[in-house]
Amino acid sequence: MKKGIGMISTLLKSLGYVKGEPLTFLSKRICGLWLVWIAAVILVGTLFGGAQMISMPIFATGYFLGFAFILANKRVYKKLAFGRPSRFQNRMTVISIFLAVLLLIGMGGPFFDSHQYRMIWLAAFLAFGIHFFPFAAVHGKIMLPLGALCSANAIAGMLLPNVPFPIFAYGDVTVMGIFGIILLRSKNPLAMEKPASETLRADKPC
């Protein structure tokens, strides 16, 4: 037990985590905008999905545009972010994305040859649901229920093949849309963490 905890502690330290230092989540609104955008892309892709369930051209185009105009856009970052994430958080972001890619290939890849689009997309939903969990270190605990709900929705779709796929696609859209809006409405955590001494000075009568 102690050995396992020690290994985890060493791993976190190698990623740049400073023990005892609280994490500040400064880019929650960017994550929120991204979730709302991807939810909209999945919605449109499902409406025009046809045999592919979700139109791959629509999804690919929407994903690329979202990446270019949200995640890689300095103006959007400057407007929505309250500061820059720590080195540890940057590394956790990379790990989360790498995890998503591995899961997408591992779970969805086997279904491409047989064109089982339902399983391809449900595997994608599950992969992204799982990759939300390590993002809790970047955007806060809100990512845990988001990941749990997205994963549960995907697993339900796999276990209930007789239920039409759009039900689960719209479920994923709803979950990401709601959590995206919540994250978009996040307040500046730095403004909420005013030092006690500063608060006392402000409250003390002149």
From TrEMBL:
Transmembrane helix as UniProt keyword: yes
Organism encoding this protein: Heyndrickxia coagulans
Keywords on record: Membrane, Transmembrane, Transmembrane helix
InterPro entries per UniProt: DUF6609
Spans traversing the lipid bilayer: 30-48, 54-72, 93-112, 118-135, 142-161, 167-184
Protein name listed in UniProt: Uncharacterized protein
